[in-house]
Amino acid sequence: MSGADSAKRRRIDGPPAADHEMSGMSSQDPIDAAHDASAAGCSLSFEEVQRRFSVLLAQVTQVECDVTTIEGSFVANVAPQVPSVASNWSTLKSSLSATSDALTAITEGMAATHPPQAPPSHPRALLS
């Protein structure tokens, strides 16, 4: 593997968000889970689609946090050395913001029209 391939692989597989723990995330990669369902020809339930949008929103929120964290370093250290990428910074931030807004609207809309079901009552609790 060349140095460029290795760097690209680290960027994809590496731990850019390893410093930040994301609670509530499943151990299966959501992309793999989506591929599994697609490959099996399955139709996902409303609840599963809702869960996946919630996972996507958490991931985008994490990316927004990471981008905000590195913004000062990017502006100070990268932009002066690679001016051609500096103009993409605002595009990145606005794209993340738009994605976050859309995912928030979708997840809130789904929750409003299809609220989570209450767990069933224990039969003994009804007898008391």
Task: Describe how the helices and strands are arranged.
Blueprint: H1 3-13, H2 30-39, H3 46-78, H4 83-86, H5 88-113, H6 123-127
Helix pairs in contact: 3-5
Region (Disordered): 1-37
Write up this protein.
With 128 residues, the protein is mostly helical. It has a domain at 46-116. Helix content is 70%, strand content 0%. It has helices at residues 3-13, 30-39, 46-78, 83-86, 88-113, 123-127. It is elongated. Residues 1-37 are annotated as: Disordered.
Compose a concise summary of this entry:
With 128 residues, this protein is mainly alpha-helical. The chain has helices spanning 3-13, 30-39, 46-78, 83-86, 88-113, 123-127.
List its traits.
128 residues, mainly alpha, elongated, disordered N terminus
Query: Cα distance, first to last residue?
Result: 68 Å
Question: Are there runs of 5+ residues with pLDDT below 50, and where?
Answer: 1-27
Number of strands: 0
Helix content, binned percent:
55-70%
Cα radius of gyration in angstroms: 20 Å
Q: Beta-strand percentage?
A: under 5%
How would a textbook summarize the main sheet?
none
